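Person: Please work through this fold.
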Amino acid sequence: MIPQTLDKITTLQEQRFLLPGYYTWEEFEKLEALTADAPGLRITYLDGCVEFMTLGEQHEAIKSVIAILLALYLFEKDINFFPVGSATRQAKEKGASFEPDESYYIGEKKS
């Protein structure tokens, strides 16, 4: 196998698609299962609305810079924190599911 380089790399812009209306939590879970293998696709749910989003290069660059600055601040101020990245957060009773760019526990990690 011979390694090859790409002459031109293109990046996609951030895209969003909102399904307004009222979808139940169970319908959201079905949509989430259908899109589970789609790389780079985020799906969020709030108050019956479902949003699909892909992240662009600019979004990722800004997110990374903010994460670095925040970590430096927390280290400088000697604040205990535990980074948990983009772990999906769900609360069926509150009708919400989302995936943050970065997230942290301040102090001790919650169980």
